[in-house]
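Hi F.,

I've been meaning to write this up properly since the lab meeting, where we talked about keeping a consistent format for the predictions we share between groups. The idea is simple: the sequence comes first, exactly as it goes in, then the structure tokens exactly as they come out, then a line or two of notes. No screenshots and no reformatting. I'm using this chain as the first example so we have something concrete to point to.
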Amino acid sequence: MAPVQQPSSMDLIRTTLTDKFDIEPDSAEPGALLAEVGMDSIMIVELGVIIKTETGAEFTDDEAASLTLAGLAALVDERRRPA
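Output, unedited:
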């Protein structure tokens, strides 16, 4: 049986933003900060829980809030549990 392919961290973040938080796909650009796409602090906490559940990667709210989406994806890649 072939291993299950995990989505890229950027795909996971963008899909979560658009599907769970109703963020417009066009605004979820790699260079945008979470606040710029409409995420508040509670939403950022929820995003962290979803990402931890999906990937095992943990980060603080402050880390997430200070990074662009691309930066957050890189952080998740760095901290993701092995497949």
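Notes:
The domain at 9-79 is CATH 1.10.1200.10 (Non-ribosomal Peptide Synthetase Peptidyl Carrier Protein; Chain A).
The mean pLDDT is 93.

If this format works for you, I'll send the rest the same way.

G.
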